[in-house]
Amino acid sequence: MAPQPKNCRIKCVSKIMDESYNRLIQSDSKSLLKKYLSQDVYNALKEEQTPTYGSTLMDCIQSGLMNLDSGVGIYAPDPEAYTVFSPIFDAIIEDYHLGFSPNHTHPPLDWGDLTAFQNLDPENRYIISTRVRCGRSIEGYPFNPCMTEVHYKEIEQKMTDVFRGLSSELPGTYRPLTKMMRCEQERLIEDHYLFKEGDRFLKAAKACQFWPVGRGIFMNKDKTFLTWVNEEDHLRMISMEPGGDLGNVYRRMILGVTAIQEQVNFARSDRFGFLTFCPTNLGTTIRASVHIKLPKLSSDKDKMKSVAEEHHLQVRGTRGEHTESEEGIYDISNKRRLGLTEFEALKEMQDGILKLITIENSL
Ligand code: ADP
Ligand code: CIR
Whose CA is nearest to atom 17 of ligand 1? Predict the structure, then answer.
């Protein structure tokens, strides 16, 4: 896609963007976008564009401007946006990833020693299920807002071929959304395997164009290794199973990622590690989570949140981000993914969850 003439595009959106920006700064939004997009930063960036795709500041921040309840409020429409709009991205990244400052560099991939991970709940008292996911972008393609229908189809075709070559405990079936019955889609979402449809944060970021073209899910026979194709990122590779055996779940995700990376080149930057659409996912891209019931601790939600924060954990609702807890089940995961190794991200999650369980036992 050739960039549109700079002045034409910028002028068209500039009035709308100014109005939306003013609405953001006058609001009580708690987003990181509001916290860091000062008038000076806004003025400095409002006329910039990325060289290859011509992405503007508006392309980065439209989700946060339209959704004042965003936690973050910004996405990178293409990989160059992280550099061109670095004054806003760097500040948000440093806050979200707990101190990853502009002079930090993400370490090389290191899965580490798998024997360090254990079953976090051997007696099955608290943990319902465990999941570890990572995101990957495919080299040579932009992120969602700049993708054409052809890009979506090419990535899906490439991945269909890759899935056919999987062996060991990984073989399974790729299910495109275009050929999935509505009831089956709903069932897979309900059972926590499939991404939801119509996420308003992604929609506002223009991440849902041509939906459902090119979107789908690969599932191995046991539904313990999955890959989401062309949802928020080009790929999300997921390992999950009932219970608390974090070591086994992590082992299987590494098996799947290693098999897939033999056939696909992933986009990686020297500073940010693996590149993703949302800055919260940069680096290792790992989110290791448990679905857990901690009835005593969660009876005081503020306390649970502050204990989780102390251990660098994030609390989500039962159906993922921006959802509420159902039947006392919380999704608790490592918060930061950038500036530490894969091993360290997992270890941070394991140590934190064990600590929460110890606190629950002491109450
Ligand atoms: P992501 O993990 O990809 O950032 P979400 O927060 O939207 O995205 O979660 C995606 C799905 O994964 C949701 O259905 C959520 O309930 C499910 N999920 C997350 N962690 C677990 C877990 N430990 N066990 C089962 N399902 C989980
Ligand atoms: C928000 O700002 O709340 C949304 N844009 C989500 C931010 C982080 N989550 C994600 O990337 N899945």
Answer: 192
